[in-house]
Amino acid sequence: MSGFALVAHQFRYDQKAFWRNPASVFFTVAFPVILLLIFATVFGDETVDVGGGIETTTYYVPAIVTLSVISATMQSLAMSLVIAREDGRLKRGRGTPMPPWVFIAGRVGNSIVVALMMLVLIATLGRLAYGVDVPWDRLPAILTVLVVGAAAFCCLGIALTAAIPSQDAAAPIVNAILLPLYFLSGVFIPDDQLPSGVIHFADAFPVRHFFEAFFGAYVPAGGGSAVEWGHLAIVAAWGVAGLLIAIRCFRWTPRSG
Amino acid sequence: MGDSVISVRGLRKRYGDLEAVRGIDLDVRRGEVFAFLGPNGAGKTTTVEVLEGYRERDGGEVSVLGEDPRHAGGAWRERIGIVLQSCRLDPYLTVRESLELYAGYFQAPRPIDETVELVGLTAKADARTGALSGGQQRRLDVGLALIGDPELLFLDEPTTGFDPSARRQAWETIAGLRDLGKTVFLTTHYMDEAQRLADRVAVIAAGRVVARGTPDDLGDRESLPTTISYRLGGEQVSVETDRPVEALHELTERALRDELALENLEVTRPDLEDVYLALTAEGEAAGGEAESSR
Fold it and tell me: Which residue of B has its CA nearest to A18?
């Protein structure tokens, strides 16, 4: 098989395993939907003081898409790769003629496809349940930001596996990094309620910049240009840094034993 | 060397201060089941991982299927199959799907159904691997290693931690590999496993080969003493002798003459387990001395 056919083959089975795994379906697909429903129910009647004032639901749709993309890529990849590594599956794969990168590429493909599906799911829910407009004329910008962000957070997820010693440590380490950043970056709590010091702190990390870029593309009323290249470039730079760490530090053999 | 599938000369491997493998020579012939037998920590897995191309070595010559595993690529990997000591499967794929996934990695894989049958999992073909017993998972491991139709198969401790019935099933699967004409390199710390499956055995202790041969003539069993034991006047007597025929003749002659009842009279030859324990104990003692004299 050619390299592409091998990746497609790997991707098919990764998709099967993903959709049959209750933990991955809940945390990656169901959890963001639940969060959107909760935020819209609790804060639905308020407005957010961004770009001259927008509805809260208009704010939370791109916020939850941001969370969904990071969850489908960085979180899901870091956890599933650590599990495969500690189970010995990465090592076994290296004992076959398959080039090792195919295994990673299949998982990355899986993550990006799930991220795109989550965009469709959350955007549809936002439109039907809360009347949040889907900015069709900005679709190229939305997809550009999403794919660059998804790729960058995939690289960060792969890099992060080097810091995770065991299967049990995977979820706590990933959540300890991402949950505070969601709060501090305006994903859970709207921008206008966060102290400027918090925003400055969050600006040091890629979650905030990805959110800014995606929000800019998704909410024309926010006043930004379709693609916020500055924010997107910072996200991409993080991705490149993650890729370099991944290339240097990624392990194929179990840490334990 | 014409029919030699694996050839190893003077293999050495060190981890920090620990010299795990201290100059091993091995030759494995085409079509045989070769057992590499030794206690935990003797250097078995290190050696097999060097042969599989997973580990760098510090010294020695290694040829597997005519190539140095250090530099061997995809074409070489088409010809070998590996069962790792511990490897869990993706629990959300079925037996058949797992085999299909791995079949896709090879140019000319074996047929899926035939392989499922070969490892005795036909009834479980559509079960998720997470629902298999330990013995069934191990047989699927063997199936995954066979799916590329390799010439040479590595099995690293294939039955460690198994209950007796799971072991027996795994043994039947492995014994079947010889009928397929595969060369099998098996590591184990069970003497009975080597005896049951292997054509030839090398015993490793403390990083050195301490004995080699067929399971029957291993360690020159004939040279070890025979034990004659009996009860006499309520007392248990046990005598070790190198001349069992003469000793037994003298004993029974005296018993008949003096009308002694030799209760529970028994003559025991050392079994393979005894030979193995004696060999590895010697090997470890010798290794220990070498360690401290450095």
Answer: B92
